[in-house]
Amino acid sequence: MQFIQISGRSLLAVFFLTTWGFTLLAATPASDLRVNAGRIEARILQLGTFGANPGGGVSRVAFSAADLQGREYLMALMREAKLEVTVDAAGNIIGHRAGSDPALPPILFGSHSDSVPNGGNYDGQAGVLAAIEVAQVLFENHVVTRHALEVIIFVDEEGGLIGSKSFVGHLSPGVLAEQSHAGVTIAEGIRRLGGDPEHLDHAAHRSGEYAAFLEMHIEQGAVLDSEGIDIGVVTGIVGIDWWDMIVQGMANHAGTTPMDRRQDALIAAAQLVLAVNRIITSEPGAQVGTVGRIRAEPGAPNVIPGRVVASLEIRDLSNARILDLFARIETEALGIARATGTTISFRKSPIHETAAATDGAIRNTIANVARRLGYSSKRMPSGAGHDAQAIASIMPMGMIFVPSVGGISHSPEEFSDSEAVARGANVLLHTILALDGNPRERSLKPEE
pLDDT grade, residue 438 (50/70/90)? Predict the structure, then answer.
């Protein structure tokens, strides 16, 4: 077997010795490769049958029987693409494809295959099947990259980036005892998948072991769809912090307590919710703040609420800005407490995701590849968390978004057109070739 590289075009000459002599097979030039849109879509729909809900959508939560079935299906596809498939200690599925230069670190790409309860067929799995398609296209066209390639399917992304955090050695040991959506602990779930929760250090990697990570994903928002743009070039993934806001007033009889003598915790909480919205929207930027849960106690219609607990979530591309916004909310809360005769305190949740910027050179390469392929693109932040967020701590990372119709996600109505997914997969394919060193693909311009 002989590998030939000419003018940035990888050709493979394969000689088969038979009783009839030698046969020469020449590959398609790498720059002309395209994915098979119909094959990707058919596989998305097939994967969606594992955990399908009678009324539509899918509940293929991590560690469930449906998850196990889906993983077996995906591993079969990976082997069909001639990947060497293993499962690491965390339960992540990794498909390895050797490169021509063993001294070079591998290029890693993939996503997750688990869903939220009653979710859709595209969140995660579109990226997984695009990654497998890239490997299969390279195999079918006899293209061998310089770097080894590894397709990864992360475990339990929806439960808190369990697989990707394990991959970088950042999973807190206490998380293993938490209950998953499948009704078992994370540790028990990992064992179900063939992992080893007692030795997660075996799944952990360090900086320098990989050249880069790429993840193709549906946008899960409406920007690309509403603006008619083909590809989102992700600039970064937002950090996420949660707090409980605790308002303490005094419960009292609703009929006998005059309005001017009340210490109504819910009135104070309502003002606090409005203050959160005002502070978050008071200056330009991509920051968002949400109060998504509120509980008034004692919760009776004839009792003035004496205590309210409300959630606060803040997301932004800057971890420092999240803390600054929270400090402003905290200051506003002191004034509300004085005016309403209540006390307001904040309890930090263990939920925390660090903001992660994508790599500038990879961003530029994705944009250049999209332009060369004739696709429109837009640089944009990701308002949702992704496995790439954890992976960015040990290697350069880039993300490719494709449009979500109507901006709907985490819902049975979630949908991305097959051609839109294929465009994202083509960008993934040619970005990998660029990172591998194909001079026609490589980004040479400074980032815009």
Answer: low
φ, ψ of residue 30 in degrees (nearest 5): -60, -35
* pLDDT above 50 for 443: no
CA distance 325 to 316: 10
Beta bridge partners of 154: 112
Answer yes or no: do 179 and 275 share one domain: no
pLDDT tens digits, 330-351: 999 999 999 999 999 999 988 7
Strand residue runs (E) in 249-285: 252-253
The closest of 139, 149, 138 to 99, measured between CA atoms, is: 149
| Model confidence, pTM | 0.85
* Distance from C-alpha of 214 to C-alpha of 358, rounded to nearest angstrom: 10
- Specify the amino acid at residue 132: I
232 and 243 housed in the same domain: no
Q: Are residues 211 and 270 in the same domain?
A: no
Count of domains for the chain: 2
Using DSSP's 3-state secondary structure scheme, residue 387 falls into: helix
| Both tokens assigned to 328 | 């402003």
Q: What is the DSSP-derived secondary structure letter of residue 328?
A: H
214, 134: one domain = yes
Q: Could you tell me the residue range of the domain that residue 232 belongs to?
A: 36-237+358-436
